Amino acid sequence: MAHGQFVWCDVSCFRTTLVRAFYADVMGWHFDTSDGYSIGQGAAGQVCGVFEMPEQFQKIGLPPFWMTYVGTQDLDHTCEIAVQFGGKVEVPPSPFGGDGRFALIRDPLGAGFTAYQGDIAVPTQQRPGHRLGHGLFVSDATAVAPFYKTVFDWDFDSIQDGPIAVCQGGDILCYCHQIPDTARRGKEQYWAVYFDTDDLRRSLSDVKAAGGEIFARTTLPEGAAAFAQDPDGAVFVLVDRGGEAESMLDWKSLNPLEWFT
Fold first, then answer.
1. pLDDT of residue 245
2. N- to C-terminal Cα distance for the chain?
3. I need a labelling partner for 63 at 20 to 30 A (CA). Which of 12, 13, 111, 162 fits?
4. CB 204 within 8 A of CB 214
5. Distance CA 141, CA 156 (A)
6. Is residue 110 a contact partner of residue 148, using CB atoms and an 8 Å limit?
7. How far apart are alpha carbons 133 and 147 in whole angstroms?
8. Each residue's pLDDT tens digit, 94-129
9. How far is it, in rounded angstroms, from Cα 14 to Cα 18?
10. Positions in the chain short of pLDDT 50
């Protein structure tokens, strides 16, 4: 596994049956099991995991959420340097199926991600219904850039409001969005998971019909996008790489992006 590469995503929720049915309707996924850790399958293979909120997550008050996974070749060392450079290990290294291990880490501003060591690498599939990528939304990129440089050897391009390319070895991995205005970003700092769609309007209609909600539309470097919420409360992003630009709408006063309180 390449250190610092995005390798997986999953959603922790309380009503797994409802959530699986929602994503089956909206994304066309089918699931390998109805119990335990369910793997969502798309047209090109595995996409994500869906599982009931673990007790250790409930104890720290996490609501339903989509999680970004970043690969590491030495999980213990990653956790050590994360703390040294202002991060917090929310869930210490723990087993994750087979021979895998994970830890839930927050960066210095509180954005949470999972560091994972093991054989789980599943590439993004740039086709409808699959994971397209990830994005970091923070108030101040200068507060987290040194952290990610040390932990994952990521380089942040010129710091500016809006999209900032995050690179490793010259390749763009994702974008960091520096948005100080909480009315636009939401109250918290967070990692978002993006899913590909070839028809954003249809996908938004499917989200609403399946019991979800749309609360913002914008244009990301990856394409026209919408921030959506499933019926259990987890937030995800739909991106149409060929879609027309959209203007950001007003966020709700009760912002569902409060993933880590």
1. 53
2. 31
3. 162
4. yes
5. 8
6. no
7. 20
8. 988 778 999 999 999 999 999 999 987 677 888 999
9. 9
10. 248-261
Single out the residue of 125, 93, 101 nearest to residue 194, CA to CA: 125
Instruction: Identify whether the C-beta of residue 90 lies closer than 8 Å to the C-beta of residue 106.
Output: yes
145-171 as b/e: b if 16+ CB within 10 A: bebbebbbebebeeeeeebbebebeee
Q: Is 70 in contact with 122 (CB distance < 8 Å)?
A: no
Give me the domain span that covers residue 197.
131-240
Comparing CA positions, the residue from 154, 122, 99 lying closest to residue 44 is 122
- Taking alpha carbons only, the member of 148, 163, 58 closest to residue 105 is 148
**Token pair listed for 98:** 């087979």
Report d(CA 101, CA 89) in Å as an integer.
14
Burial group, residue 248, by CB count within 10 angstroms (0-12, 13-18, 19+): middle
Q: For residues 168 and 149, give the distance between their C-alpha atoms in angstroms, rounded to a whole number.
A: 9
Residues 165 and 112 in one domain: no
Sign of CA dihedral 214, 207, 37, 99: negative
Extract the runs of DSSP E, i.e. beta strands, from 24-111: 30-31, 38-42, 45-52, 65-71, 88-96, 100-106
What is the tally of structural domains in the chain? 2
Is 91 in the same domain as 167? no
Q: Let me know how long the chain is.
A: 261
Whose structure tokens read 């507060």? Answer: 143
Q: How far does CA 91 lie from the centroid of its chain?
A: 17
Residue 259 located in a structural domain: no
pTM (whole model) above 0.85: yes
Rounded CA separation 241/12 (Å): 27
Look up the CATH number of the domain holding residue 64. 3.10.180.10
